[in-house]
Design a protein that fits this description.
heterodimer, A: 399 residues, mainly beta, four-stranded antiparallel beta sheet, 2 helices, globular, B: 93 residues, alpha+beta
Chain lengths: 399, 93
């Protein structure tokens, strides 16, 4: 007689108050949410949501008084979809017709959602999604409707982009807070592309970034960029973790300079940036592309305080023996509190956190499925209905 | 005899909890049957086929026990009284 199939109870949703920190932890088997008071000493967890689906992308949208969590679960059977909750997981909205759909003439079908990025603060209705196959989708109505960005999709380079280990994915979307219409994206492979006209035209921005897997080590495009971060206070400064190579740009990606000064390896995936200091960046180096584990079995975050001139390990509280851990491109996050909280997840399902900017680490959760995405948010106070209506009017005018 | 489409458990949130749909008109092919399904439960159809109208790689559709991949795909004939079963493949999460 077959054993009965057990029903998993629905998770209890979180109810964080203003100022609380919420972590969005995407894994290959669902999304977990964690919350803590600003002290970040004790964490309450909830999940998994979207059980059995991989969640490579999640995002917090606190603009315009929202408390919205976006997630992009991908079911092996039923495809990828974009979902959201406005009450920390009590109810997820899953539109019957998936929001992201390639138009018929494109001939493409959505495989995974790799990045969900809220747009500029002064455009609180704008959102972007980077997807696989490599493409950018944009919403101008807070996610109700989405359009494929034709400028990038029809770019003549696109036919020559090749899939990396994770597939041909557009995994990074950076919205320039200082210059309207400027957007930087990164695709593996393909490299860095930038638009200065709101997405109508795009130019490859890979000068100085190497591609060890191509005959020409410095091609115009085709690089396997793993992650780029940008600081709101100095948006022209970008940091890039490449498939071999650590780079900095001071001219919005027009040129890149090597900054792998004193790291055990310049191979890696993830990057984080300090919320108040544009010179301070976090990485987790991996041994090599052939052995994607931290070097020497020592789990170390490396940080620079001088824009990449020098790097130091941050390892207090992290395992320093037989730790064959892998941290993937989006499994790293920094919160906006002071001192900043820093978090990362491993392919072996461990979630680490530091409440003092990486000086000391703690294991926040163990035994999770492989972690592929970590995002940190600080919950804001809810503005009054009148204030929200006024903001909405203002943003409509700006649009 | 009406044609019946069987809806797998994970897709029932998109079919108001129902496990089957009885088609009043007899569809000629599986593609036509899925079009009728979409008219009633678009969320089910969109999770069975991609936006390009192709059956998703890890979904199998059977007409009276025969996998349509071994026949004519979405052009497979649907005889009157058939049962169309939508089943997730053995892969999974």
């Amino acid at each position: 007689m077959p054993a009965p199939k057990r029903k998993i109870p629905e998770p209890d949703p979180l109810s964080p108050g203003p100022g609380h920190v919420v972590l969005l932890v995407g894994t290959v088997k669902g999304l977990f949410l964690l919350e803590s008071s600003p002290a970040r000493r004790r964490w309450k967890a909830s999940g998994p949501y979207f059980r059995g689906s991989s969640v490579y992308a999640a995002a917090w949208d606190g603009r315009d008084g929202r408390r919205r969590i976006w997630a992009g679960p991908s079911s092996m059977h039923f495809g990828a979809e974009l979902c959201w909750t406005d009450d920390f997981g009590a109810k997820w909205k899953r539109p019957a017709t998936p929001l992201l759909r390639f138009p018929q003439p494109s001939g493409a079908a959505l495989k995974h959602i790799w990045q969900i990025s809220p747009g500029r603060d002064d455009r609180p209705e704008s959102l972007y999604c980077g997807v696989e196959p490599s493409a950018l989708f944009e919403s101008r109505d807070a996610g109700k409707s989405w359009e494929l960005n034709d400028g990038l999709w029809n770019h003549p380079h696109r036919a020559k982009w090749m899939p990396g280990g994770g597939g041909l994915c557009l995994h990074t979307v950076l919205v320039d807070p200082a210059r309207a219409g400027r957007l930087t994206v990164a695709s593996s492979t393909g490299g860095v592309y930038r638009t200065d006209d709101g997405g109508k035209s795009w130019r490859a921005r890979n000068q100085g970034v190497r591609a060890e897997f191509l005959p020409d080590p410095f091609p115009e495009f085709g690089q396997c960029v793993h992650k780029i971060v940008q600081h709101g206070a100095r948006p022209g400064r970008l940091y890039l973790q490449n498939h071999w190579g650590l780079y900095r740009s001071d001219d919005s990606g027009d040129s890149w300079q090597d900054m792998a000064n004193g790291v055990p390896s310049d191979f890696g995936f993830c990057m984080g940036i300090h919320p108040r200091d544009p010179d301070r960046v976090f990485i987790v180096p991996l041994h090599s592309d052939g052995f994607r584990c931290v070097p020497e079995g020592k789990l170390r975050v490396y940080a620079t305080r001088d824009g990449g001139e020098s790097w130091s390990p941050l390892s207090r509280g992290l395992p320093q023996r037989d730790a064959f851990e892998t941290i993937v491109r989006d499994a790293f996050a920094v919160d906006s509190l002071d001192p900043a909280g820093v978090y990362f997840g491993t392919r072996s399902g461990k979630l680490f956190g530091s409440r003092d900017e990486g000086s000391r680490w703690e294991l926040l959760r163990d035994g999770l499925p492989a972690i592929v995405c970590v995002r940190a948010a600080v919950v804001g106070a809810r503005p009054s209905v009148r204030k929200r209506a006024a903001r909405k009017r203002q943003s409509r005018k700006a649009a | 005899m009406p044609v019946m489409i069987l809806i797998p458990g994970p897709l029932r949130p998109f079919s108001a909890g129902r496990d089957r749909l009885r088609l009043e008109r007899s569809p000629g092919t599986v593609g036509e049957a899925l079009a009728e399904l979409a008219a009633v439960y678009p969320g089910v159809r969109d999770r069975v086929v991609t936006e390009q109208g192709e059956v998703r790689p890890h979904i199998n559709v059977f007409v009276s026990g025969e996998n349509i991949r071994d026949d004519s795909g979405l052009s497979t004939d649907v005889p009157e009284g058939s049962e169309i079963a939508i089943l997730p493949a053995v892969s999974g999460g």
